[in-house]
Amino acid sequence: MSALLSVRDLAVTFSTPRGPAHVVGGLDFDVEAGRTLAIVGESGSGKSVSSLALLGLLPDAVTRVSGSAVFDGAELIGRSEEQLRHVRGAGIGMVFQDPMTSLNPVLTVERQLAEALRAHGRVSAEAVRARSVELLDDVGIPDAAARLRAYPHQLSGGMRQRVMIAIALAGEPRVLIADEATTALDVTVQAQILELVARLQDERGTGVVWITHDLGVVAGIADHVVVMYAGRCVEEGPVDALYARPSHPYTRGLLESLPVLDDARPAREREALTTMPGLPPDPVDLPPGCAFRPRCAYRLDPRCATQVPPLEPVAGSVETHRAATFYRLPAAGDAQVRR
Amino acid sequence: MNGEALVRTTGLRVHFPLPPPGPLRSSPGAVRAVDGVDLEIRRGETLGLVGESGCGKSTLGSALVRLVEPTEGTIEFDGSDVTAMPRRELRALRRRTAMIFQDPFASLDPRRTVGETIAEPLAIHRLHRGRSRRRARVGELMELVGLAPDHRNRYPHEFSGGQRQRVGIARALAGEPDFVVCDEPIASLDVSVQAQVVNLLVRLQREMGLTYLFVSHDLAAVRQVADRVAVMYLGRVVEVGDGVAVGEMPGHPYTEALVSAVPVPVPERERSRERIVLQGDIPSPTHPPSGCRFRTRCPQVFEPCADHDPVLQSLGGRHGGPAEQSAACHLHGVTG
Q1: Which of A100, A161, A320, B127 gets the most CB atoms within 10 Å of its CB?
Q2: What is the pLDDT of residues B99-116, one digit of tens each?
Q3: Cβ pair B193:A279 closer than 8 A
Q4: Do the domain assignments include residue B320?
């Protein structure tokens, strides 16, 4: 299947008073229709910045973006604001983490939906009203006609996030980018939103990019996973292969550090959680070689200190499973992560 | 651990009155954040307190260390009622209780060095008096939580989130408390740092024999640290008991939904899990539903739920085990 959105060698650099900050470097990924790509990383890993860069949503004055992002046969990087405006919404929709700060507090839900609907063509007031009710229905907001008159503060967090999704869907985008879209929500509400996005994706064949730090959510919704650390993809692959045989020491560390829900042992009989020492590096002052090296328990190869390891296929896994590490896992079997 | 209660609440209510009626609201009211909680926390245990935003779990935690005033009911600490305590005694009590806050960016004074912050409880409680003794104690506390004592003169902004949380933990332990309320202590930390702080809290508890109330929305983290677990919904404890029993065999439909909604990081298991997706939102804590507060979202609601307010009843041994477990649900027999 050909990709809806194809990103190659994306790099983002911010100028800061302390010098250039390399926040994204050499990132590649593809988004396919009806599939979910998960981009996983911690704060500062570059996972959000990379999608903002595609849509030209970073401040031009202090940002340098290079590489290529082809959507619908056209290059996005370097396009004018005017041209990008047509892509945003109609081509690529976006949902952000905090619906309280991304909705306008002084406009009703209807005004904000109407703005999105009108952005992509002239529509009559009646059509806007009808389509708005339809969109709110689609995202599972009960009593949609009445909710159109509500202001954001009158809605719960889950309802606001549904409104955000309705706005993102207004332009009937072919790709939906959700940036930590359920992080601020409770787990029972998160379950509702995940179910909603899966249904919409099935119905419309939307390609979804799900940006998150939550490896549990990713396990349930992703087809393909990209793990980012210090601005680079350190491992990627189909979700089953990547979780079954995490091959970058960072991916392994992340998976092993999670407390386990379905472990029937009482707390006092459990082992301490596995930890990774230290912190992610400063993007202004990245260490030479592998950026994970200072925290890595397996930094035995002399190249770790001098070369950025390239993404290479993981031995014994599927072809599309690649990791950027000089560390080689022992043969399958003892590679299983403790769970 | 199956021992005596160190902290016990009876009929505890914490209501926050709303402003007087105006053009936008006709009747006065109150946010009933904690609305009738009977709970005991036993010496040396960790009681996990889970629930979703707005359920009252943090308010309950704050009330236990007297950061908010209870509206009704009693809180006993080590046998004495602290709601009726004179100021002098309250000060002694405060030394024996402490709190670790969620946001290590907001809970440290940015204009004080971390050494000053950690020393403050020592000054208030007149412990380790004298400059050099106090300095030594601050160093000890910093080492205890994994910070380098020679960083004592640094300011909070020079530390990462995980290190700031360690400063908050050192401050909480400075007065040598018996009881510590950990209020979402890992919620604002990055995944790779959360495990470090969880392990630290567990180690400190075991080494110092502390009693914890571990307040969190993260059920997986709670299972990792808590001996017993209490589940809150809309101001009430709806289930409490042995951590394994509550986590593996929930006795309340809300706990069941909560457990089923927590994503598990194993793809084949996560995709095939039976998920109970609750409909609707948590009702307003100003006007909780009649009868059982969960009935408006409960997938198993039936006749008595609207009229009878269920009370916690023991389900002990229902799964053949000795595990202690209680739930407030009419499915186990109509109460209230």
Answers
A1: A161
A2: 999 888 889 999 999 999
A3: yes
A4: yes
- DSSP-derived 3-state class of residue B63: helix
Contact flag B263-A214 (C-beta cutoff 8 Å): yes
Q: What is the ipTM score, two decimals?
A: 0.87
> How does A220-248 read in b/e, with b if 16+ C-beta sit within 10 Å?
bbbebbbbbbbbbbbbbbbbbbbbbbbbb
Answer yes or no: is B114 within a domain: no
Regarding predicted confidence, which is higher, A335 or B126? Answer: B126
Higher pLDDT, A286 or A186: A286
CATH of region A5-228? 3.40.50.300
User: Could you give the strand order of the β-sheet that contains B211-216, starting from the edge strand earlier in sequence?
Assistant: B97-100, B179-183, B211-216, B46-50, B228-233, B236-242, B325-327, B313-314
For chain A, the domains span: 5-228, 230-323
- If you write DSSP's letter for every residue of A115-176 in order, what string do you get? HHHHTTS---HHHHHHHHHHHHHHTT-SSHHHHTT--GGGS-HHHHHHHHHHHHHHT--SEE
Contact A261 B226 (CB under 8 A): no
d(CA A26, CA A12): 9
Number of domains in chain B: 1
Top residue of A262, A276, A339 to mutate, by most chain B CBs within 10 Å, is: A262
Q: Which of B231, B168, B233 is nearest to B201 (CA)?
A: B168
Compare CB distances from B192 to A42, A157, A214 and report the shortest one's residue.
A42
Mean pLDDT on A47-63? 90
Given a cut of 70, whether residue B237 has pLDDT beyond it is yes
Angstrom distance (rounded) from CA A282 to CA B285: 44
| pLDDT band at residue B27 under the 50/70/90 scheme | low
In a domain, B322, yes or no: yes
Helix (H, G, I), strand (E, B) or coil at B50: strand
Domain that residue B256 falls in: 235-336
Sign of CA dihedral A102, A104, A105, A110: negative
Write the CB contacts of B281 (distance below 8 Å, at least 6 apart in sequence). Answer: A156, A158, A159, A189
What is the H or E stretch that residue A7 is in?
strand A5-16
What is the distance between the alpha carbons of residues A8 and A10, in angstroms, rounded to a whole number? 5
Task: For residue A257, give the nearest of B191, B226, B242 by CB distance.
Answer: B191
Contacts of A270 in chain B (CB under 8 A): 224
**Upper half-sphere CA count for residue A6 (Cβ side, 13 Å):** 9
B198: pLDDT confidence band, cut at 50, 70 and 90? very high
- Is the CB of residue B97 less than 8 Å from the CB of residue B177? yes
Contact A265 B282 (CB under 8 A): no
Q: Where are the beta strands (DSSP E) in chain B?
A: 5-17, 30-42, 46-50, 72-77, 80-81, 97-100, 179-183, 211-216, 228-233, 236-242, 313-314, 325-327
Q: How far apart are CA A264 and CA A256, in angstroms?
A: 17
